[in-house]
Amino acid sequence: MTLLARKAVAELVGTAFLVAAVIGSGVMATRLSPDDVGLQLLQNSIATGAVLVALILALQPVSAAFNPVVTLIERVLGLLTTRAALVLVAAQLVGGVLGAVVANLMFELDAVSFATTERGGTGQWLGEVVATLGLVLVIFGSVRAGRVDSVAFAVGGYIAAGYWFTSSTSVANPAVTVARLFSDTFAGISPASVPMFVLMQLLGGVLALGLLLVLHPSDPRPTDAPAEEVSHG
């Protein structure tokens, strides 16, 4: 199997598990704490942050972005070829949908049920810009500071916190956003809400890239290290 194929499998599997954890823990939370939305969010955020740490630690040696924004920025920074970036983004999107279907089936729901939860408005859109900007800075800032081993914990902690300090509960991921429209559960996002969420996530990524180049203008990678062999969360 080629390196790109291995990366694609890692991105598909990792994104599938991430989405399954987001949706599955949301369903479990509503069943265990049906009358306490705050507790539901706490349970959902802890599960999501924890699974991110585990998945990145396990898959980082191959590829552990699980997020099209991160992959596109890797392309801009020269860490991936255009072909590789497109393949990995496709794998993330497919993995996300697969994770949503599996989560639905685990809890004996319809395999696919389109979400009806509307998420929008300037506050939540701004929340997604902030959430994605912060996530990208955490990831690439850690890498450019030479702290690759800390990425898993930094990302897991940031996303768990982002559930609480952003108005949008910090989705910060186009693949996860698209996947969540296929589950009419606690974590669902209605199809009509998806385009603006994705647009705001891309905007947050662009802003983060600009700030990253100001704060960390140099790349600590050895100059003779092939860019396509560098992978991170």
Automatic annotation (TrEMBL):
Q: Where mainly found?
A: membrane
| Entry keywords, A to Z | Membrane, Transmembrane, Transmembrane helix, Transport
User: SUPFAM superfamilies from the xrefs?
Assistant: Aquaporin-like (SSF81338)
Please name the GO terms that the record assigns under molecular function. Answer: water channel activity
A GO CC term assigned to this protein in UniProt: plasma membrane
Q: Where in the cell is it found?
A: Membrane
Q: Does the keyword Transmembrane helix apply?
A: yes
Transmembrane segment boundaries: 12-30, 50-73, 85-105, 125-143, 150-172, 192-215
Q: Record's InterPro entries? A: Aquaporin-like, Aquaporin_transptr, MIP
Q: Which domain of life is it from?
A: Bacteria
**Topology within the bilayer:** Multi-pass membrane protein
Record-stated family: Belongs to the MIP/aquaporin (TC 1.A.8) family.
Tell me the protein's name. Aquaporin family protein
The taxonomy runs: Bacteria, Bacillati, Actinomycetota, Actinomycetes, Propionibacteriales
